[in-house]
Amino acid sequence: MRSLAAMLVPFFLVLSLGLVAGAPAASAPAAAGVPPPSAPWVPIADTGNFLYRQVGNFSLLIRTLVFREYLVLVEVVSGSVQAAGAGNNYNLLLRAADRNGTVRRYQTVVWGVPGSRDWTWKVISFQRVAGN
Questions:
Q1: Backbone phi, psi, residue 33, to 5°
Q2: CA-to-CA distance for 61 and 57, rounded, in angstroms?
Q3: Which of 128, 117, 113 is nearest to 30 (CA)?
Q4: Residue 84 CA to its chain's centroid (Å)
Q5: How far is CA 123 from CA 100, 102, 111, 120, 127, in A?
Q6: Which residues does the chain have with pLDDT short of 50?
Q7: 6-18 per-position pLDDT tens digit
Q8: How many CB atoms sit inside 10 A of residue 46's CB?
């Protein structure tokens, strides 16, 4: 029987390719996840954009794999983006449903480089927040 890690490698490859499809590549390589000292957080105007839904789904998938807490994205409520090295930090407020259909709010920060196959996406933080 194959180990769990051996079975997940192809899955993560497909997932990482899905996150980069259709997005423009970053221009200059730099340290991953290290924002310049003056990089501001810029509000996201269109949280329904496919890229932000992918980032939210990625965060929920990692949560499911690590904690076995199955969550389905309902919507990206709000968010902001910050330039960080070769990519961006995405700070998203999500509404997600558990297996029972209970919808709760979650705050996540994800780092990634849209359009690149050279960088691995990372969930920096994930937490449940009050309200629904």
A1: 75, 10
A2: 6
A3: 113
A4: 14
A5: 25, 23, 6, 10, 11
A6: 1-29
A7: 444 444 444 443 4
A8: 9
Return the bridge partners of 13, or none: none
Q: How many CB atoms lie within 10 A of CB 74?
A: 15
77, 66, 86, 67: which is closest to 106 by C-alpha? Answer: 77
For the chain, give the DSSP string.
Answer: ---HHHHHHHHHHHHHHHHHTTSPPPSS---TT---TTPPPEE-S-TTSHHHHHHHHHHHHHHHHHH----EEEEEEEEEEEEETTEEEEEEEEEEE-TT--EEEEEEEEEE-TT-SSS--EEEEEEEES--
What span, in angstroms and rounded, lies between the C-alpha atoms of 51 and 114? 8
**How deeply is 97 buried, as exposed, middle or buried, from its count of CB atoms within 10 A (0-12, 13-18, 19+)?**
middle
- Tokens representing residue 112 in the block: 């990634």
Check residue 2 and give its pLDDT.
45
Angle 97-100-102 from CA coordinates, rounded to 5°: 45
pLDDT at 85: 87
